[in-house]
Amino acid sequence: MTYVPTRVYLAGPYRCRDLIRELRTELEAGGAYVSTASWLDEDCEITPAVTGAAPGLSDEQVQQFSLADLADVDRAQYVIHLTPAVLDGGDPGSGGRHVEVGYALGRGIPVVTVGEPENIFARTATTCVPDFGAAVDYLDKQRAWTMSAVAPTAECG
Predict the structure, then answer these.
(1) Side by side, which strands form the sheet with 78-82?
(2) Cα–Cα nearest to 129, from 36, 46, 140
(3) Tens place of pLDDT per residue across the chain (157 aa)
(4) CATH topology (fold) of 6-150
(5) HSE-up of 44 (CA within 13 Å, CB side)?
(6) How far is residue 54 CA from its own chain's centroid?
(7) Distance between CA atoms of 80 and 108, rounded to whole angstroms?
(8) To 5 degrees, how large is the angle CA 72–CA 76–CA 82?
């Protein structure tokens, strides 16, 4: 039987892109998971002009990036929401990740919040874990349960 990697969207502050890229590498290392977060592959320099409301980008660019992010969330089976406190302890930023998390929840995509919940929705509608390793452990358990639920039996073999 061939298993297809589980698709995971990594949501976090744009300013932490390089750190989240490292986490993506860790996530994908075993082959069980693949990231759908194409924003991690963007190569623009991280400055105030491209973070938050991105005043340095045109309306067309902003629309292109935001629609791409939502399409990436649509392709995911899970979203890992990385809170700033866990990543760099910095300010919470613009909160674009909150839009991605809300969008995922509205689409029925499970969300795992890494770190202390930042709002009541994270506390009530997501699975909260203390660190990235615990998030991967949670996904491993979900993946094992799913595979055991669909594994062929001797009778239907």
Answers:
(1) 33-35, 6-11, 78-82, 111-114, 127-129
(2) 140
(3) 567 899 999 999 988 999 999 999 999 998 999 999 999 999 888 888 888 888 899 999 999 999 999 999 999 999 999 999 888 877 777 789 999 999 999 999 999 999 999 999 999 999 999 999 999 999 999 988 766 655 555 454 4
(4) Rossmann fold (3.40.50)
(5) 15
(6) 21
(7) 14
(8) 85
pLDDT in tens, 131-151: 999 999 999 999 887 666 555
Length of the chain: 157
Query: How far apart (Å, rounded) are the C-alpha atoms in residues 114 and 85?
Result: 9
Which of 129, 85, 124 lies closest to 102 in space, CA to CA? 124
* Structure tokens given for 106: 């509205």
Rounded to 5 degrees, what angle do the CA atoms 76, 140, 7 make?
Answer: 15
151, two tokens: 């594994």
Fill in the amino acid letter for 30. Answer: G
Token pair 């998030």 is at which residue?
135
